[in-house]
């Protein structure tokens, strides 16, 4: 854990490169110089990956297609099938090359049959005219009706077949594994049949879906979830590692997201905690404050009870237990003097009050973290409004202070830092809710506090008038750099403790 003194000692050396903090692998860890005042040998200084970063690579649509073509050619050379047939086999095997080659060598005919590539000429795909035939889909019959059937023998009129395929491709987004429309038939419509039946206006969509199927079938590839983005991201983090790693990646479109769950960046909270927290907030946050202020739990069955009258004699509708609303004691001990409740020390009331206090304490603990989580979420939205107006403010500052466009870029940098730090702070409170109390928790909260204070100071400066901003340039640059460093320190420390298992998670929070 770095102290504030250590941070200040490396501030001047880090300012030059902290601006590139958003790029993977372009941050350097602060490394103390050895106590050696003599000359040292020159060494190549290489950027070192932060503890919270993961290796990833972004692939464009053309690169994804090249990857597919390369794998098809490699497998085609091994099994001796044409490239088109090999592509069908790979899609059927969900692009698992090793499994396909092994199964093909052992059970060649079965693999060809299951993938719709049987070499039996009787099952070749073609449109034929049929007499005395009635389509089971549209009930159309007549002479010289164009029909189509695969080797499974389920024959339908061409118009119905084309409508079925169009619905699958256009509406359901399916391409590589479209099944025969016959009831209960599992046979996959092969590529030759699709080329024969798919209309020209759907062929581009069909090929696009084939590419999407490739990415969806690969465990180490995921599409960027940003709207209209066509890039895919490759990351080697396994599903089993998601309890100790938060694999945040950055697409070429600029979108930051978690490779594990595809949600927006939620460092430092692991995916499982994010899922639990979001469900808890959805279930509890709207009613938690009201429950805390207006209800109590039955001392016997712990059902939540709202007082609906002035009388303190309460009867639980669920278990029929009678108790006093004031002291939570058994009502039978109160006699007829319910209005003079002074029996605080009786055991039944004491136990009930202890249980009530424990329940309220749990609720208040949740509200503590939720309110701060929600506050940073709201602040991030307000900061985003500022970000959208930043360019206008930069233009105003440029004209009023005679600064160049390059010189006013510090506002853009400060706005981006605010957005990123708010996002991190928001999730630190969700993360902290599930942490068991120990020394590491206190260190985490100290880091959280330092980052929060720095962010609030920067946010306050950003709201100054345009006339004041020119004089705050140096101070804002320093505070922006400091916010970035505090965020890196918090994320690094948390990531290291997560990987080592030193941070303990409360299982039933």
Automatic annotation (TrEMBL):
Q: Where is the composition biased (Acidic residues)?
A: 1-36
RING-type domain span: 131-345, 135-181
Q: Which reaction does it catalyse?
A: [E2 ubiquitin-conjugating enzyme]-S-ubiquitinyl-L-cysteine + [acceptor protein]-L-lysine = [E2 ubiquitin-conjugating enzyme]-L-cysteine + [acceptor protein]-N(6)-ubiquitinyl-L-lysine
What is the organism of origin for this protein?
Answer: Patellaria atrata CBS 101060
Entry's Gene3D superfamilies? 1.20.120.1750, Zinc/RING finger domain, C3HC4 (zinc finger) (3.30.40.10)
> Keyword Metal-binding: yes or no?
yes
Q: Mind telling me what this protein is named?
A: RBR-type E3 ubiquitin transferase
EC number annotated for this UniProt entry: 2.3.2.31
